[in-house]
Amino acid sequence: xxxxxxxxxxxxxxxxxxxxxxxxxxxxxxxxxxxxxxxxxxxxxxxxxxxxxxxxxxxxxxxxxxxxxxxxxxxxxxxxxxxxxxxxxxxxxxxxxxxxxxxxxxxxxxxxxxxxxxxxxxxxxxxxxxxxxxxxxxxxxxxxxxxxxxxxxxxxxxxxxxxxxxxxxxxxxxxxxxxxxxxxxxxxxxxxxxxxxxxxxxxxxxxxxxxxxxxxxxxxxxxxxxxxxxxxxxxxxxxxxxxxxxxxxxxxxxxxxxxxxxxxxxxxxxxxxxxxxxxxxxxxxxxxxxxxxxxxxxxxxxxxxxxxxxxxxxxxxxxxxxxxxxxxxxxxxxxxxxxxxxxxxxxxxxxxxxxxxxxxxxxxxxxxxxxxxxxxxxxxxxxxxxxxxxxxxxxxxxxxxxxxxxxxxxxxxxxxx
Length: 417
Fold this sequence. Notes:
Elements: H1 12-18, E1 22-23, E2 34-35, H2 37-56, E3 60-61, E4 67-69, H3 70-76, H4 78-81, E5 90-93, E6 96-100, H5 105-113, E7 124-133, E8 149-159, H6 164-182, E9 188-193, H7 207-224, E10 228-232, E11 241-247, E12 253-262, H8 264-268, E13 284-289, H9 294-304, E14 318-322, H10 328-340, E15 345-347, H11 353-362, E16 367-371, H12 373-378, E17 380-385, E18 394-395, H13 396-409
């Protein structure tokens, strides 16, 4: 018996370029990849899905600037505790320095504080898929996994202390739902805690605040009945966090989703709300990301799916291939009807039929519709699936409906159940 070697681990840097998902250029700079049309199409679908998921969960969407005054990050604590990861300030005048933001939380804190808030408003959930920047050293940059400019699926939930437990449970449920739809396999949960010993200068806030926050996150994980490990010294400088881990093909783990509990920044920005007694308590700030940055997410997805994304976010979902020039008009009509149905479809007329089908397979396109003389005459298509299966000729309208149904259901299969 001949035993074949297992396939080599997928490398998103190679696959991402072969599949025209992203690229880079020395004139733009290291750690600053650009998204090509195929990658932009897939990313757009996932961002649209996340926004709809969050909308249904009560999130309000904002846009905030990618710059902030130096004083903003001095107030938030980033200048004191996160300076090594920040780009140097840009001096605009003697008393005006701007900083590329390393994170969105100070902006969202100010957005919360920009309007009077009542206990009846809470929780206030502020969401944004926005840009942020990290001064990563050249030696650690690579593909989409470690970059200097990233787009984060970010949100900050402001709630009363009594609401924290339910709010974290709701976020964990959203993470599970998003992971299942997108195709993310969790490698486990990590409770990232404050370090001890000589690490005190790394963290902001009093020890009592940390003990309370860590106990609340531990309770949330226990409520969810998930296994987790505790990691001292891995907390954010302002609070402990739950990290959802994923593993690459060679079992290296990284964090892709996070829930962070923060008592520090609400105090720094004097945030408050009016409670039922007329007092003004401080809200708790929960930082959360369902899938992390789009860059790190796609570094994972490219490798996990080996470029063969689920139909709903495949960059091109259908290629239509006429056998001869005489069949081109019928093929163009099928491609047009697929586009009208909301699919990403292309008409391919260059090269032999075999070459066009092979090219679609190399591009990991889920469906190829071949149209010959018989199909053109009868309004049929012969569908070939990415996994090698071929279906009997069917009406073109039925084929388009089949693909649209698989896409809209966000199934990970190529055919309906």
